[in-house]
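Reopening this one. Same input as before:
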Amino acid sequence: MRHFGQMSDAARGRLFLHQPERIGPDDDRELRAVALGATLYSPATRPALAADITRRAREGLQSHVLCLEDSVADDQVIAAEANLISQLQQYADAGGGDGQLFVRVRLPDQIPDLLRRLGGAREVLSGFVLPKFTAPVGRKYLEALEGAPGGDRLVVMPVVETPDVVHQESRTYALRSIAHLLAENRERVLAVRIGATDLCAVLGLRRDRELPIYDLHPVASVISDIVSMFSRADGTGFVVTGPVWEYFSTHTRLFKPQLRSTPFVEHEVPQLRSALLAGDLDGLIREIVLD
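Same output, byte for byte:
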C-alpha cells in the first residue's frame, strides 16, 4: 500500500519533497500501525461489500474494518457472517488489494470459524479488531487466533472501551492487566484502539459535531490514562489510534466555527473554508490535531 497512491506522480510531486513509500505486510509492525491512516468501519451486512472495499481503496483508503459487532443487529449476525464470507471470497477472486483489511468480531469463537469458512480468501485479511477488550476476554481472543487456520500471520487491534476502564476505582488495574497481556503477545498487536463511543455510553454521554471527544472531560481523562499506559516511548509501548470520528447532527450550530478565515484568505481559497464548514469538517480537523 502507498499513501496518496490515488494521486498522479505529478500531483504527489507538487505536495511532497519525498514521495510516500510503499508499505507491505512484511514491513515493521509499528510502521504498519502508523500507516493505518484514517480507518473506515463498514457493516458486514452491506450487499456490495467487495465493491465497496475496492472503491474506497481506489480513493485512497489504507485501512478498512468490516464490522460484525455494534453495527450489526443481534438477529442479523448469521446473515452478516455469510455475507462477509461471500464478499471476501469475491474480493479475493478479483485479486484483492494491498490495503490493510480487518474484521471486527463479537466473540473469540468467531475467529477460527470465519477463517475456516473463508478458506484461501483469508489471505486478503490483515487481522482482527477485538472489541470490549479486557484481560480475561482478550486472552480468549488471542488463544482463538493462535489455533485458527492461517492465524499465524494475522495481527490484532484490541479496543479499550469497557466500563472498568471508565470507572476510576477499577481503571488502573484494568489497564495494567491489559498491558501485561499485550506485552506477552507483542508480535500479535498492531495497535491499540480507543472505543470512544462505548466510553461515552458508560457515562450516558453523546457528542455532537461541535464537541470533540477531548471536550468531554470525563472521557478525555480515560483517554489520557490509556495513552499513558500503552503509548510509552521507552520501547514497551504500542501505537494508540485516535478515537473514531462520529457525530450526530440534530440542530443548527450554536458555537462559532473552529477554522480561522485568515489562512484561507491569504491563500485565496475562502471557498475551501466554506466547504469544510458546510461538511462539519472543522470539528474533525480540530479533533485530529488534538489526537
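So the earlier flakiness isn't reproducible anymore. For the record, The mean pLDDT is 90.
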